[in-house]
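Repro:
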Amino acid sequence: MAMYDLPATINYILRKTGQEQLYYVAYSQGTTTGFIAFSSIPELDRKIKMFFALAPITTSSNMKSPLVRVFDLPESLVKFILGHILVFDKGEILQQVTSRLCGYTFFKSFCSLVLYLPGGFTDSLNVSRIDVYLSRYPDSTSIKNMLHWRQLYQTGEFKYYDYGSDNVLHYNQSTPPFYELENMKAPLAAWYGGKDWISAPEDVNITLPRITNMVYKKYIPEFVHFDFLWGMQAYEHVYKEILELMKKNA
């Protein structure tokens, strides 16, 4: 995603719009992808006017989500539980069924647990929209991506994917190299929450001091992970400030 998908997306947008730079607004794993891409590809880094990171993640050893306990299991068992290729692949039919069921008042409380359990409990979520949220969340991903997150969680180190004995073939060394966050020169503005179980503030406070061009950061004590995406206070606390920073740096 960081080395191929994101560069292709950014280059396509710039080519089509005729612009030389763009703003990159990212949430959760989208920030991880940005950190990797911009610190690893200097020519891509120069195309970012400003990087807005909501609930940023690099290291993840302080995750508090109960669902992260699956990462404590052996790799073979993780693959068995999550699937060998795709994870969270609901398919169109299951997606529609989930959306319809969660539209009924009787099921809304149960459905809301799907959002609360991973990222923390909040009273600022618009529960009437649960069916809309769950029609798209969680989306599918690869088992390799999940195993990489397992690696980051277990080691507390922001490194390339660990291929084990094949590391020498991929990296010409026996262990995966670190991602050099200090190489990222794009201006970064970050927002993170005090009750976030996924992007834990302890981990964010390890990440941000490594950023060489930090232009703004905001700690929101009451925010959980999904408040940045669907919280009713997201506009006032986050989106409004993003727009102001864009205008200021236009």
